Amino acid sequence: MSTIADTNSLFEIDTELDGLLDEIEEQTAQGGEPAEEIVARFQQFCSAHGEKVDRIGRFLRRMEAREQFCRAEVVRLSDRARAAAGKVERTKNMVLYYLMSRELKAIEGREFTLRAQKNSQDSVRITDEEALPLAYRKIDARVGGVLWETVLANLPDELSKMLECSVEESRPDTESIKATIQREEEVPGAELRRGWHLRIK
Known about the structure:
The protein is an all-alpha fold. The chain has a domain at 135-187. Helix content is 58%, strand content 3%. It is built from 6 helices and 2 strands. The chain has helices spanning 4-7, 10-29, 36-101, 145-153, 157-165, 174-182; strands at 106-108, 113-115. Strands 1-2 form a two-stranded antiparallel sheet. A hairpin with a 4-residue loop joins strand 1 and strand 2. Helix 2 packs antiparallel against helix 3. The longest helix has 66 residues, at 36-101. The relative contact order is 0.05. The mean pLDDT is 86.
């Protein structure tokens, strides 16, 4: 059997409580007593209000725990994926070494055949990473907007455009925005305001 908390949202329960309070005030304003059924309904909705709040609180706690679990699982599974990839690479290299050291093309089992096959194109093998010139590296960097603008402003137009085209992601620097607005300077497209958050106790 469904309860009031099952079939009504928090807003609907609140609206009903407001209506019942108005009725109770009207009936007591003339010196009378409120009808028993109205008082009983008011008590039911008060109880449902508390139950609904508790349900929302329990739901949020569960979702927060699930979020933390999922984030932890992402890290754990990423570590396991890297470890598995490393094992795959090491095992493949061991089998290749075995085949080539014995001048074999393949070895067969009942289910699988492991075959040494020449690649269709050349691949790069890094023999000494520290000796590799910077020109032959890809750079992933996190640069503040002020430094970025300064660098672009001091480069020739063509080089500046090439650098701008290399940007994969840019996002608001909220700490810098906050500091600027607190100095009473305007930041186009942004404002500082005191927000709200939900705290569960």
